[in-house]
Amino acid sequence: MGKEIKKVVLAYSGGLDTSVILKWIAKTYDCEVVTLTADLGQEEDLDGVDEKALRTGATRAYVEDLREEFARDFIFPMMRACAIYEGRYLLGTSIARPLITRRLVEIAHAEGAQAVAHGATGKGNDQVRFELASAALDPSLKVIAPWREWDFRSRTDLLNFAAENDIPVISAGNRKLYSMDRNMLHCSFEGGELEDPWNEPGPGSYIMAVPVEQAPDEPEYITIDFEKGNAVAINGQAMSPAAIIKTLNTLGGRHGVGRLDMVENRFVGMKSRGVYETPGGTVLHAAHRDLEGICLDREALHLRDSLIPRYAAAVYNGFWYSPEREALQALVDKTQENVTGTVRVKLYKGNVVPVGRKSPYSLYRMDLATFEEDEVYNQADAAGFIRLNSLRIQGYGRRS
Q: Fewest C-beta atoms under 10 Å: which of 30, 130, 161, 273?
């Protein structure tokens, strides 16, 4: 089986699943396995993960800090697009997959590997995201998806295989109850009591944001500075993209901001219930969206808004490396050229409330909008405007 495959690059977390996958690929394909462990800000101690991979059978183990690249080249472009899937989900898991896959492919080229591998199951979206990205970046690479190939059907099967092959298993805390994915943008929870959409999420599903009942009783005000649609400073302090996300996670999380409990439509055809924590991303999205209100022309804003579902679907469904997403990004980035300024927001009991905004490119005119006396707007002009726009409606009203 797979005699043409001599070397595989595996996306490796060091947990039970990918440790078993590492050994299973090496034995099943009789090949070398190189691992990639990506630090995307998941706040896990990665010290020793390379040694564990080597002990489990890897011939080489890469551990890479991709936090700045993740924030700058993936999260921020998506935030500029105001992308939200099905009107609610800020795409925290989805946006990480194209970066991991890109590094898998780059390492495969450097190592002379013939395949890449992932630990996504056959029921989820991640398998699609990994494999579509790989196909776009190098269609000659084979993709190995053990969950679609092997005979294991339960955690007990994996534990038995680990014991038989001397693979150390470390307790994973909440991961026993939930299937979780975390990076700097969010943490997702599935499984456990969440499989019944009527059940309220349990206390173990809080990691990045406190329960709103435990949030402070006093609001906190912060400012976020933007340049061309990208956040560049918080409370006047310039920061890198990754530091922006991390700081907003801390600020938003302590006020219970960014909790989402939803049933979504997976690309593979089923509905799934998940709980998402995205404190920093929620604050950033709200502030950026608010600044656009004074910086963007009406029709440019409405055009971009009409494309949000298309952009979000491209990210969610795994088409980051696609002509349509790249074309949408070009349009989005054109609209962001003057989205520069400062937004002041109030964080309170799970809410993000913009309370002030200013920009050197503001299109807002107080002399036009005022309810006081002005000399630039003739209110009588509105009568003709309304008459012309009513012609179509009048005809529709006379149809019977």
A: 30
| Whether pTM exceeds 0.85 | yes
65-81: per-residue pLDDT in tens?
Answer: 999 999 999 999 999 99
Place of tokens 């944001």: 209
Grade residue 370 by pLDDT with cuts at 50, 70 and 90.
low
Length of the chain counted residue by residue = 400
Q: What is the SS3 assignment for 22? A: helix
In tens, the pLDDT along 89-147 reads 999 999 999 999 999 999 999 999 999 999 999 888 999 999 999 999 999 999 999 99
- Choice among 17, 50, 225, 290 that is catalytic: 17
Q: Find out whether 39 and 64 touch, Cβ atoms under 8 Å.
A: yes
Q: Same domain, yes or no, for 352 and 290?
A: yes
Respond yes or no: is residue 157 known to be catalytic: no
Q: Does a structural domain hold residue 109? A: yes
Catalytic residue status for 290: no
Task: List CB contacts of 336: < 8 A, sequence separation 6 or more.
Answer: 80, 228, 229
Structural domain count of the chain: 2
As a whole number of angstroms, the distance between CA 262 and CA 150 comes to 31
51 with 164, same domain: the answer is yes
Q: What is the pLDDT of residue 382?
A: 86
Q: Is 267 among the domain residues?
A: yes
**Local structure of residue 354 (DSSP, 8 states):** E
The token pair at 159 is 């534990």
Residues 164 and 196 in one domain: no
Would you call 182 a catalytic residue per the annotation?
Answer: no
The contacts of residue 67 (CB under 8 Å, 6+ apart) are 39, 40, 41, 184, 242
Whether 19 is catalytic: no
Which listed residue (50, 126, 225, 290) is catalytic?
126
* Residue 200 is assigned to a structural domain of this protein: yes
Catalytic residue among 179, 254, 310, 362: 179
Domain that holds residue 346: 180-296+338-358
In this structure, the answer to whether residues 131 and 154 fall within a common structural domain is yes
Identified catalytic residue from 67, 80, 97, 357: 97
- Over range 13-21, report the average pLDDT: 94
Beta bridge partners of residue 263, listed in sequence order: 273
Looking at residue 258, which CATH number applies to its domain? 3.90.1260.10
